[in-house]
């Protein structure tokens, strides 16, 4: 009897050791779980529970993000460009960070088009046919910072833009009016690009930019005849190129003491009133090319940090010895590294060498030939 008991004990110990030395079970998927339950009849129970809905939460994997048909989804970027879409696609993954819908035929943005996309950082709707935007379209986009809406058919700035927005590009639309408070609540806004819209000076209502702390604003290729009033005084860059501005008056620039770069090229400017530039003590670059100036603007020698001046393609016939540089030594903090005077009716050989005494390099001055 004893030998039989010893043999039985050894078999039990061997079975125990073989069980404990096995590798841990690693579930690969749904069918691993199913086959593991097969011996005990658990498979039938599980399938019955699934039909009844009592075990769905336990057996299904976490939600798998779907990608809209025809789009490419990778690393939380959903690219649906160039697909001929006429509306915003459904089933956009909720964790999407950047949504690219450019180069389609979308005509309208509806209330729930972006529902649930609370993580969206950037949205591109460039080059569509959008003319209508529901007032609550952008409400779900609590964290969106960049909105690219150029080359559409907008006639007004969309309403209820997210407070998180930092940059908006709405150039090449049909915007003729910017109402008071159009950008209300957008304290984080840093950059607005709204050129190539058929907007006149009268199209900006008083308070249109109230509350904004912009660094960058471009209203080029519009129908402006003067520098718009009451733009944000925080601006570092202001681009008003390719308009119909006739002159710069004394008060036009009085509130922009933080400007680093001012673009007024390709206008019809004949005169810049004396003292106008004195309000821009931090200006680094001044673009006045392709205008109708007959002389170098007054006040340049007093601009301590100015180092680039574009004056080419004007009607400047004479350059004085003190037009660019101050007389006193050390008054200018930054030497010029770019002065363009080509395509002007000025005889460069008549210009005194001392005229450019505060230029870093003689090659920084460009005269070129004048073609009448």
TrEMBL record:
Start and end residues of each LRRNT domain: 66-98
Listed GO CC annotations: extracellular space
Species whose genome carries this gene: Champsocephalus esox (pike icefish)
Family matches, as Pfam families: LRR_8, LRRNT
Keyword Signal among UniProt keywords: yes
Family indicated by similarity: Belongs to the small leucine-rich proteoglycan (SLRP) family. SLRP class I subfamily.
Coiled coil: none
Functional note: May be involved in collagen fiber assembly.
Protein name stated in the entry: Biglycan
């Amino acid at each position: 009897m004893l030998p039989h008991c010893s043999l039985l004990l050894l078999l039990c110990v061997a079975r125990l050791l073989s069980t404990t030395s096995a590798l841990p079970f690693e579930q690969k998927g749904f069918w691993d779980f199913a086959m593991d339950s097969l011996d005990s009849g658990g498979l039938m129970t599980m399938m019955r529970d699934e039909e009844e809905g009592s075990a769905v939460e336990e057996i299904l994997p976490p939600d798998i993000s779907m990608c809209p048909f025809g789009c490419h989804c990778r690393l939380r970027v959903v690219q649906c460009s160039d697909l001929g879409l006429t509306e915003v696609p459904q089933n956009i993954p909720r964790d999407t960070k950047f949504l690219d819908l450019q180069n389609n035929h979308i005509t309208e943005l509806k209330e729930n088009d972006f529902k649930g996309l609370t993580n969206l950082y950037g949205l591109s709707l460039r080059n569509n046919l959008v003319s209508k935007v529901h007032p609550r379209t952008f409400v779900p986009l609590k964290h969106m910072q960049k909105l690219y809406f150029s080359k559409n058919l907008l006639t007004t700035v969309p309403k209820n833009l997210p407070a998180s927005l930092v940059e908006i590009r709405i150039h090449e639309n049909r915007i003729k009016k910017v109402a008071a408070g159009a950008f209300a609540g957008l304290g984080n806004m840093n950059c607005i690009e709204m050129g190539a819209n058929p907007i006149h000076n009268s199209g900006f209502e008083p308070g249109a930019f109230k509350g904004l702390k912009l660094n960058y604003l471009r209203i080029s290729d519009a129908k402006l005849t003067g520098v718009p009033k009451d733009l944000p005084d925080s601006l570092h860059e202001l681009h008003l190129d390719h308009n119909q501005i006739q002159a710069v008056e004394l008060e036009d620039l009085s509130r922009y003491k933080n400007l680093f770069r001012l673009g007024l090229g390709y206008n019809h400017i004949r005169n810049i009133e004396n003292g106008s530039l004195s309000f821009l003590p931090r200006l680094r670059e001044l673009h006045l090319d392709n205008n109708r100036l007959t002389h170098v603007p007054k006040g340049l020698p007093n601009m301590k940090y100015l180092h680039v001046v574009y004056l080419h393609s004007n009607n400047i016939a004479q350059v004085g010895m003190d037009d660019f540089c101050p007389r006193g030594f050390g008054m200018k903090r930054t030497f010029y590294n770019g002065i363009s005077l080509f395509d002007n009716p000025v005889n460069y050989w008549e210009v005194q060498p001392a005229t450019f005494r505060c230029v870093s390099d003689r090659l920084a001055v460009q005269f070129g030939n004048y073609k009448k």
